[in-house]
Amino acid sequence: MMWRIGLFLFVLAALPARAEEVVLGLSRDKVAITANFDGSDILVFGAVKREEPIPEGPPLEVVVTISGPSQPVLVRRKERRFGIWINTDSVILGAAPSFYAVATSGPFGEVLTNVEDLRQRVSVERAIRSVGAATGTEGVQDFADAVIRIRRNEGLYRIEENAVAVDEQTLFRTAIDMPANLTEGMYAARILLTRGGRVVSQYETAIDVRKVGLERWLFNLSREQPLLYGLMSLAIAIIAGWGASAAFRVLRER
Amino acid sequence: MQIYLPIAEVSVNAFLLLGLGGMVGMLSGMFGVGGGFLMTPLLFFIGIPPPVAVATGANQIVASSISAVLAHLRRKTVDLRMGTVLLAGGLIGAALGVLIFNYLKSLGQVDLLVRLCYVVFLGIIGSMMFAESLRALRRARHGGGVPRRKKHTWVHKMPLKMRFRTAGMYISVIPPVMIGLAVGVLTAVMGVGGGFIMVPAMIYILGMPTKVVVGTSLFQIIFVTAFTTLLHATTNYTVDIALAVLLLIGGVIGAQFGTTIGLRLKAEQLRILLAVLVLAVCGKLALDLLLQPAELYSIASAGNG
Predict the structure, then answer these.
(1) Is A4 part of any domain?
(2) Which of A144, A153, A192, B181 has its CA 20 to 30 A from that of B127?
(3) Across B107-214, where does the E strand assignment appear?
(4) How many domains does chain B have?
(5) Looking at residue B143, what is its pLDDT?
(6) Which of A202, A179, A165 minimizes the C-alpha distance to A44?
């Protein structure tokens, strides 16, 4: 008995001195891209576990982020040459998530200080790193801004303030809407608990987004057996062309 | 009903694609053209990435050409020998075209090249057709046409002559191979069958009888577009089967309605309509190049860029 209590105390001591922790639920931890996929709503909900009464001071705020797989992106800029607009400069940005959504329980500036944002890379501007932009083109920031602007317009990057509901400083929930043009990969869901703009606890989990069924099969086939895939598309075309000709001849002869 | 296209990686409305296929199919039935030159730009407009639109367009033309060639074979209006000669040039041209396409893709200029080709060729063909049909309309009104005599041009002075039975010609194989080559490059780069260039070239440069021209050009288009589809599928992975199937279904049905409508309209009226359509597509594409775009930046994935 004694050794058990001892172990328990030891474990408690080993844990970082964190008074509040996140217990999280997701409405789904897998998103399947099927043939009729047209976006998905993910419900993120959870509770704050604590061993002691709710601390005094500023209320608990919650920040939820979901980010798609980060990939380097090539950004091109058009310029007018010979009277027409053509791509001239390009910059490779080190890492930009294919999807990035932030939901907060209050105005962004109030739930997270600038310093914490810098450290945790929460806001869209911070989540994109232009490290590795070695092309030597001036104004790399312009290109990074362009990525944010384009993806924001496509609904791939978004920030939703006051979208997380927090009850009694304990229960929280939010719904994040994922668009139809998702790329596949592991998406990271991150929950930050803040007080007075400082992060007091965070929790991370993964959401698996992938093509399934026919979509998966076709995509794999096109990459792994391109010749077979090409022949298959030709076969479909030939059959369709021949079939149509034959079918309508029968119809006409009637 | 939204459908997610596995290769294009966009979600589009299935009925929009069926309708698009149907509309282009109807036009191709009405005017006797492959319709690729309209299909590919229309796919750009609805947001399909240009490389996918070009490769899938080629696949779709295979189907519509087969459907049409079968009809021509029954009427014996295909010169298989001439078709084979054109084809030899066409296959070399298609391989060259895919090389050019991939090189420009690595430079980030493929969109520009494809659009520029469209503007130039649609502009030329559209205005030529428009002028020609206006003249024909005027002539029809005044009555009486001028029958044209076969002329002997530089084409008839080249070596390597060959006899073409169905077409009733005895000419050098060099000009047909060159024409096939040029059209093959266009097929690969623009995702079109090239019939709208091939047909005038065969009539005006080779002096082939008009009745065998369409069938023969369609015959060789089947093989060149099939070859292009394979090349795009194996080098760029940009053929989208789901997209192709939807376009095919619409196209095949539309073509049959188009043929019926086409039979009711006069040839000159048809050609003017087609010319206006071609010029409209050309104008839209040209404006995109000439006017300052709303967004100067574009994103390509660094992986294949």
Answers:
(1) no
(2) B181
(3) 161-164, 169-172
(4) 1
(5) 56
(6) A165
Same-domain status, A48 and A116: yes
DSSP-derived secondary structure letter, B294: S
Quick: pLDDT tens for B90-103: 889 888 888 888 88
d(CA B134, CA B140): 10
Assess if residue A118 is contained within a domain: yes
B303: Cα within 13 Å, side-chain hemisphere: 4
> How many domains are contained in chain A?
2
Residue of A174, A122, A183 whose CA lies nearest to A156: A183
pLDDT at A138: 61
d(CA B18, CA B1): 11
- Report how far residue A70's alpha carbon sits from residue A67's, in angstroms, rounded to the nearest whole number: 8
Residue B296 lies in a domain: no
Q: What contacts A44, CB < 8 A, 6 or more positions away?
A: A24, A25, A26, A27, A64, A66, A103, A173, A174, A175, A176, A189, A191
Give the domain extent around A243.
Answer: 212-254
Tens digit of pLDDT for each residue in A154-183?
778 888 888 888 888 888 888 888 777 777
Amino acid type, A216? R
Is residue A141 situated within a structural domain?
yes
Residue A204 placed within a domain = yes
* CB-CB under 8 Å, B290 with A84: yes
Domain extent at residue B132 = 2-141+151-290
**Strand locations in A60-163, DSSP E?**
60-67, 70-81, 84-97, 100-104, 157-160
Can you say how many angstroms the Cα of residue A148 is from the centroid of all Cα atoms in its chain? 14
Closest C-alpha among B246, B224, B251 to residue B7: B246
CB contact under 8 A, B3 and A76: no
Asked if A108 contacts A159 with a C-beta cutoff of 8 angstroms, the reply is: yes
* Pick among B64, B67, B105, B301 to test the A interface (most A CBs inside 10 A): B67
Q: How far is B292 from chain A (nearest CA, A)?
A: 7
Is the domain of A224 the same as that of A100?
Answer: no
CA atoms within 13 A on the CB side of B9: 12
What are the tens digits of pLDDT across the range B163-212?
Answer: 776 666 777 778 888 888 888 888 777 767 677 777 777 777 777 777 77
Same domain (yes/no): A185, A220: no
Neighbouring C-alpha atoms within 13 Å toward the C-beta of A11: 6
Would B301 be classed as within a structural domain?
no
* B-chain residue closest to A93, CA distance: B302
Other CB atoms within a 10 A radius of the CB of residue A16 amount to: 6
Q: Taking the model in full, what pTM does it have?
A: 0.71
Quick check: is B137 in a domain? yes
Contacts of B255 in chain A (CB under 8 A): 244
Task: Confirm whether B298 is domain-assigned.
Answer: no
